Amino acid sequence: MTQAVVPSSTLVGVEAIAVEVQVDVSAGLPAFTIVGLGDTAVLEARDRVRAAMRSSGFDFPNARVTVNLAPSPVRKHGTGFDLPIAVGVLAATGQVPRSVLGAVSVGELALDGSVRSVPGMLAHAIVAPLRGLPLLTSGDAVRAAQTVRECEIRGLGSLGNLRAGLPGVAATSSTAPPPALTEPDFSEVRGQSSAKRALEIAAAGGLGLLLVGPPGSAKTMLARRLPSILPPLDDAEMLSTAVVHSVAGLDLDGVLAGVRPFRAPHHTATTAGLVGGGTPPRPGEASLAHNGVLFLDELPEFSPAALQALRQPLEDGYLTLVRAEGRVRYPASFSLVAAMNPCPCGYLGDSERTCTCPPTLVERYVGRVGGPLMDRIDMTLRVGRTDTSRLLTGSTEEGSARVRERVVAARERTRTRGLPRDLSGAALLRACGLDTETRRTVEEAARLHRLSGRGVTRLLRVALAIADLAGEERLTRPHILEASGYRGHS
Hints:
- About 45% of the residues are buried.
- A hairpin with a 2-residue loop joins β13 (about 320-325) and β14.
- The longest helix is centred in the C-terminal third of the chain and has 18 residues, at about 455-470.
- This protein has 21 helices and 16 strands.
- α6 (about 195-205) packs parallel to α17 (about 400-415).
- Helix content is about 35%, strand content about 15%.
């Protein structure tokens, strides 16, 4: 009887949990058994491992092979256990040096023996150095995994390469930046100066914004240009965002280049699609927008249940899903930008066309969004039509690059003052430094717009973003008045 223990890991949410792949090869009727709460993909590893070993010139033992994935109470998902199971069988039967057991192995095996990457490689790369071990994985996963600088990566092209033991440390991948992405630019939007100002404030403060207006008023066009004025991701934001995208199996080039995510799901998205779920649980659009923008076009057309599920992440910056298997937590700190028509026909309050919707239908349409969600949206702006003559002129509009400079300067001003984005309560009041006149203005705005305590907090955050854009340390009456103008339509 021979045994081998191979370090590996499995995903729970966006975190990798340490797993030991224990392989036992003993005398008896030939059998290949995998135990330890593996899903269908894990159990199918038996056929992939057997074929990959034979294709690579190894012998699969004519014996009883038992694989235990410990700890047993934790459910294991995916095809990443192919490689550690094969490594354990090969080491237990003496076909490769036992030094191969000294790395956290994660990878899928093709039938020809080649090694493929699996979703969530960044999460596996984070847990490997915590165990004091290198990460053995597919060669094509090296670039993404090297984002975790503390992790030593051993790239493996084929199972047959293990005959010489663990491969050497993978060479650092090229640091050449990827091709520049063509982003929509603010200069392409004619007019709409108030909407552009609102987007600039939202970008400076990481705030949420709702655009309300008739069809063709450039609501979607404006929202899609918000990423072009956002500052690039810093190192910590890049890693946390890339981990979520890695777990979801998405391309990481944009995130690793510092581009903030912009997610725009269709209004038919389900609650699970928006906030995450499934078996095994996967991150939803809210988590994929982490450190970026979640854009919901045609807001009232979304399922009310899906919209209300966004209330927790808007308040806390993360999502907690509770399932029979346990709790899963996903990061979800995003700026919510939404667009909607004022009524089902879209022309309520329009200067050019008359609304044909009865009041009860309008009330029901707007009510689909719900007061609690509206209370969590920092800014609301009515967007009107752009004059046709303005559309046809060749006038030059301010481009995104100049707006981004002001946004970056404002965020840097906030950072140097040590103010977190979710500032609230007494700390928020101290940061605002309200004098008697400004405090009276806040009270008047709260009474006028019937703001809740949360509404007052968000009013002050908007005012702080306005002050940061203006380069001023304290809030003054004009800052509060402008901020209160963005609460009047909620």
